[in-house]
Amino acid sequence: MGNASSASKLPPLKTVADCSAERMMGIWFVIAVKPTAFETKNSNAVERYTWREKGNPDFDIDFSYNAEEPLTSPLKSVPQKGWIDDANTATIAPNRMQTKTGNWKVSPLWPLKLSYLLLEVDIDNYSYCVVGYPSRAYCWIMSRTPQMKEELFTDLTTRLKDKHQYDLEGLRMVPQKWTKAEREKRNLVQEIPDSMLEKE
């Protein structure tokens, strides 16, 4: 995946070293994306990270979304598996969940295990994050709620361009439109405040 030749001309992406795996668990709404094949038209994209107390992988990812238009198009789900990238992490805590690193691996399907690089994270509150890919062909801007303040979004895209040397051509905003019924259907009552719901 991605354009390896273009990536070779740029320095490797630098991840957030002190990112807590434990605090990254939970719900993330995809605000914008340089899309993979699954994400060129989707909407209401949500990723749910759940730590596995035992076994391999380290955590599960439930990636769910509407195929096209929010609320009306078919709901799809792509289950994925995630690991802390031991080879690129300086220290693995005895309790792996306590490990702090921005280097993960994710598998959308066996046997693929792809780099998943946490480039920007709100270390204080874990309210937003930006995920990159080594070739810079893909990226994900995510938030704990389905809306992100414009100032923050502008800041994160600026960091992607200036700090991480991303070409953001093709970046698309992922529509996030929620009703009370859809919020309940997808078990997101705690994550989506009433102020962010569409009027029914």
Uncertain segments are: 1-6
Order of neighbouring strands in the sheet with most strands = 1-2-3-4-5-6-7-8
The count of strands amounts to: 9
Percentage beta strand: 25-35%
Give me the Rg, rounded: 16 Å
Gross geometry: globular
Order of helices and strands: HHEEEEEEEEHEH
Q: What average pLDDT do the residues reach? A: 94
Top keywords for this entry?
single chain, 200 residues, alpha+beta, eight-stranded antiparallel β-barrel
Structure description:
- The structure is a single chain.
- This protein is an alpha+beta fold and 200 residues long.
- It is 14% helix and 30% strand.
- It has 4 helices and 9 strands, in the order ααββββββββαβα.
- It has helices at 4-7, 21-24, 150-162, 180-185, and strands spanning 26-34, 43-51, 59-66, 75-84, 103-107, 114-121, 128-132, 139-143, 172-173.
- The protein has an 8-stranded antiparallel beta barrel.
- It is globular and about 50 Å long.
Chain-wise SSE layout:
Layout: H1 4-7, H2 21-24, E1 26-34, E2 43-51, E3 59-66, E4 75-84, E5 103-107, E6 114-121, E7 128-132, E8 139-143, H3 150-162, E9 172-173, H4 180-185
Antiparallel strand pairs: 1-2, 1-8, 1-9, 2-3, 3-4, 4-5, 5-6, 6-7, 7-8
Provide a quick synopsis of the model:
This protein is of the alpha+beta class. The chain is about 15% helix and about 30% strand.
